[in-house]
Design goal:
The structure holds 2 protein chains of 2 kinds.
Chain A: E1 3-7, E2 10-13, E3 19-26, E4 32-38, E5 44-52, E6 55-58, E7 65-70, E8 73-78, E9 87-94, E10 102-103, E11 107-111
Parallel strand pairs in A: 2-11
Antiparallel strand pairs in A: 1-3, 3-8, 4-5, 4-9, 5-6, 7-8, 9-10, 9-11
Chain B: E1 4-5, E2 10-14, E3 19-21, E4 24-25, E5 33-39, E6 46-52, E7 59-61, E8 64-69, E9 74-79, E10 88-97, E11 103-107, E12 111-116
Parallel strand pairs in B: 2-12
Antiparallel strand pairs in B: 1-4, 3-9, 5-6, 5-10, 7-8, 8-9, 10-11, 10-12
Classes of the chains: A mainly beta, B mainly beta.
Chain lengths: 112, 117
Amino acid sequence: SQTIHQWPATLVQPVGSPLSLECTVEGTSNPNLYWYRQAAGRGLQLLFYSVGIGQISSEVPQNLSASRPQDRQFILSSKKLLLSDSGFYLCAWSVTTITEAFFGQGTRLTVV
Amino acid sequence: AQKVTQAQTEISVVEKEDVTLDCVYETRDTTYYLFWYKQPPSGELVFLIRRNSFDEQNEISGRYSWNFQKSTSSFNFTITASQVVDSAVYFCALSEASTSGTYKYIFGTGTRLKVLA
């Protein structure tokens, strides 16, 4: 069966520090991968999605970047965190973009 | 423009009551897909249902039912005989083709459901 792993679960980082969140999927090949951010009490904002290795689409210009170095690995990064980067980050995968997405357990990031 | 609207920010019901969560979507595509997800306090989103635009049949799964009406662009979710364990944030989502031709998911802002014992 397919599983998605996302870590760390919580993270407290100072302003200006770098960020690296990792997500891996097991049990499937060539998944579509997504990074979402959920601000407190708000909906999900799509940050990046990838339909294949090295293919990254950015939905919202911001302080973050994403990479897909391997088929089932999706990384969210920042060189210098801002206070506004705080939030709940969710990684997800789907077989195609018209089938349901399955989500990781999320990373709660607090920038202080 | 808002693609997926969940006008109900928060709903509180007493256990065993029925509750309907509204979802209104906007799209120009004739082919699109609608989803409902549940986000319990743990934070992980749980997939509930997927519906394509050509299938307007309502669906029932246990205490859950979904009413899809293209005429009103709505995809509402009803929980019958609610239970405390149903307390969560529920998201409606739309998958439509982006300008690059690939589909992407667009989520509503969610409805927080509180079921009181």
